[in-house]
Amino acid sequence: MRTQGMLSIVASLGLALWLSDASAQLAPSRVNARNDLSTMAREPFKVFDNLYFVGQGEVASYVITTSEGHILIDTMWDLPGYTEYLLNNIRKVGLRPRDIKYVLILQGHRDHFMGAPALNDILNVQWGAAEEDWKLIEKDLGEYSPPRDIVIKEGDSLTLGDLTIDFEITPGHTPGTTSMRLPVYDNGVRHNAYFHGGTALRSDDPATIREFIADSERIKAMAGKEIDVQIVNHYDITPYGAPDLFQRARLLENRKPGEPHPWVRPGEIVRLMDELIADARAQLEAAEQN
């Protein structure tokens, strides 16, 4: 059995080999204010009994735990230090990277998948994304893209151990933006979470905008009935005036017995969807006038 120290060495060697091999053919990401680990590094933390934040200050990555292994959501950037950072964050919350069975990429933007090639050399996992976003990933990464083990479709589900994730394709941010419904637990008490893969509308196609509005209306209708938790993949996806991801983390850390969990706020799901719908309707009006 490999020790954590040995795994760290393997991770470092894997990253170094990948960077040296890929540097001539795969354009690396550039350091900017959103991905500079010197300012964006954050301590990981437990959000729920079976959900851990292991990302950085701008973009999230999560580990979902189950009785038969774990699921990693998104891989962040490919800049030097990111692979070690992610693996170390996973260890810091008491989990083992080698127990990860699946890596799911919820949107085809570089800040969510560029860490995949290095991780693919280290972890023995299955990779999943939606068809349209697999195209974006493969266009960017070329031969360094992770394998298409799973092509997520509308209505699909994934069961690992005692947990089942239900998938929805919610285009608008990217053509294949993937969202998930899953149970999360607060000291054993079940809550129903919605993890939206991309809430910022980035399309001027009227049909896509209408679909985005319909999805947002549907999510709003589920709030408080079928879902009571919203999980976000960027720290500031929140309705106006509500705590951001790291403010919630501080509330959770300082929560007193009997106080509600800071993520269990179905009313804020309604407010967020209302804001998304209003913005999308304005974009639709502009798109139809052009």
Map the helices and strands:
Elements: H1 4-22, H2 37-40, E1 45-48, E2 51-53, E3 62-66, E4 69-73, H3 82-92, E5 100-104, H4 110-113, H5 116-120, E6 126-130, H6 131-141, E7 150-152, E8 157-160, E9 163-169, E10 178-186, E11 189-195, H7 206-222, E12 229-231, H8 245-253, H9 266-289
Helix pairs in contact: 1-3, 7-9
Notes on the protein architecture:
This protein has 290 residues and is of the alpha/beta class. The chain has a single domain, classed as 4-Layer Sandwich (Metallo-beta-lactamase, Chain A), CATH 3.60.15.10. It has 9 helices and 12 strands. The chain has a 7-stranded mixed sheet with strand order 1-2-3-4-5-6-7. A 5-stranded mixed sheet has the order 8-9-10-11-12. Helix 7 runs antiparallel to helix 9. It is globular and about 50 Å long.
